[in-house]
Amino acid sequence: MSIGTNWAGYHEYAATTLHRPASIDELREIVAAAPSIRALGSRHSFNDLADSAELVSLEGLEPSILVDDDSETVSFSAGVRYGELAAALQAEGWGLRNMASLPHISVAGAIATSTHGSGDRNGTLARAVSGLELVTADGGLRTISPADDEFDGAVVALGALGIVTRITLDVEPSYQMRQDVFAGLPWERLLENYDAITSRAYSVSIFTDWVDDARTMVWLKSRLDERTPPKDLYGAKPLPDDVRLVEGEESNTTQQGGVLGPWNERLPHFKMGFTPSNGDELQTEYLVPRRHALDAFRAVRALGPRIAPHLHITELRTMAADSLWLSGAYETDATAIHFTWKNQPDAVLPLLPVIEAALEPFDARPHWGKLFHTVRRELYPRLDDFVSLAHEFDPEGKFRNPFLERNVFAG
Ligand SMILES: Cc1cc2nc3c(=O)[nH]c(=O)nc-3n(C[C@H](O)[C@H](O)[C@H](O)COP(=O)(O)OP(=O)(O)OC[C@H]3O[C@@H](n4cnc5c(N)ncnc54)[C@H](O)[C@@H]3O)c2cc1C
After folding, report:
1. Residue 324 burial class via C-beta count within 10 angstroms: exposed 0-12, middle 13-18, buried 19 and up
2. Residue 81 belongs to domain spanning
3. Residue 49: CB within 6 Å of ligand 1?
4. CA torsion angle for 228, 232, 236, 238 (degrees, to 10)?
5. Which of 210, 238, 276, 399 is at a distance of 20 to 30 A from 159, taking alpha carbons?
């Protein structure tokens, strides 16, 4: 019997065994004995990326969250979720540079897929990684640091190199932020002022449904030492109250309206204590080099009337370039074009090749953890190096699965 479904309920895992080791030694024995096994994080991916005959969850291991004040890093067990890590750091006066919209996701799953938040000067979440420990195919334990040649290939690794057991992230002193929402941004003014808007705060998200300017919002997440948000943002007006991201739900977003608070209660869009939504949604996202952002927006906007009936909302975010081989921001500052779809797979899946064709001139890399049609392998200049690395770590392919065969190994 299947171990169940992903968070959205869309993918039923083919796996029939879910191991929950209580120690690293037990995990090593499980991995050494299994013919085909992968790590399962918090099940927030939308596709079959995590799947395998056997899966292993690290949620039973002690979190063991340890801050090193001298190196300004935190290390912890790989089953830990961002919300739990962030609360522990904040309690000790430390902060993370960035977070994704949802604090419920596991750190290991997020960095494995190049998950990101927003901010012109912030990289993907994987960029904060400064050390990994993992169990390899033979049950061995291996550590990888930025000094190792394979580091840039091993962070965003899609679970293909082994079961990550411990992660070290860079931290910084805790900081205060405010979140301000502006509604009704005219589309043309967005295009004219895109750089000014995305650089207006530490982390900026733009929401649109591609057809109705009244639904186009800008969320500014500003650090205390930044400029105060304006009274009018290129025609968009500040909203005094918290907004909902998905219609009909109770407000589950982190505090808005310009109220100061700790970083971990402003950077994610959703509160940790609330279920972010009922899972009745699908997601897709493409990362385009920033230099193509406006042309890519125009191309998707031309499809607006086809997209809008099936869409809850689109979010546009930015991130700084990194050197991680499989990252969506590999060697380019990037803009992410995200779609939160209604749970209508029969309508949504046929739209994906249409959107990908429209984005074809703009070198769009799909988010590894969301729904997409095709990965263009030529957009990852180090993909062959990654495949070699995977062969070295896992010669018999016990961490390979149909997703990886289709999208990574099929050369
Ligand atoms: C409501 C919602 C909001 C989201 N918001 C964002 C967002 O703001 N930004 C964004 O970029 N993405 C976002 N995502 C996507 C999400 O961040 C990614 O799908 C991420 O991979 C989820 O992590 P997970 O632990 O749930 O992964 P899973 O789906 O459980 O696994 C994903 C991958 O990580 C691997 N993995 C997990 N743990 C380990 C480990 N210990 N060792 C090795 N490999 C491991 C798995 O094998 C698999 O390949 C969102 C998803 C949802 C459902």
Report:
1. buried
2. 66-174
3. yes
4. 60
5. 276
Please tell me the pTM assigned to this model. Answer: 0.97
Domain boundary among 141, 174, 207: 174
Does 185 share its domain with 309?
yes
To 5 degrees, how large is the angle CA 160–CA 164–CA 169? 120
Report, as an integer, the average pLDDT of 64-93: 98
Mutate to test the pocket of ligand 1, among 3, 47, 105 (most ligand atoms within 8 A of CB): 105
- Report pLDDT digits (tens) over 77-86: 999 999 999 9
Residues 214, 361 within the same domain: yes
**Ligand 1 binding pocket includes 38 (Cβ within 6 Å):** yes
* Claim to verify: residue 346 and residue 202 sit in the same structural domain: yes
pLDDT digit string, tens, across residues 187-232? 999 999 999 999 999 999 999 999 999 889 999 999 998 999 999 9
pLDDT band at 396, cuts 50/70/90? very high
Q: How far is the CA of 82 from the centre of ligand 1 (A)?
A: 11
Ligand 1 near 268 CB (within 6 A): no
Would you say the CB of residue 276 lies under 6 angstroms from ligand 1? yes
**Does ligand 1 have an atom closer than 6 angstroms to the CB of 337?**
no
Out of 40, 80, 335, give the residue to mutate to test ligand 1, the one with the largest number of ligand atoms within 8 Å of its CB. 40
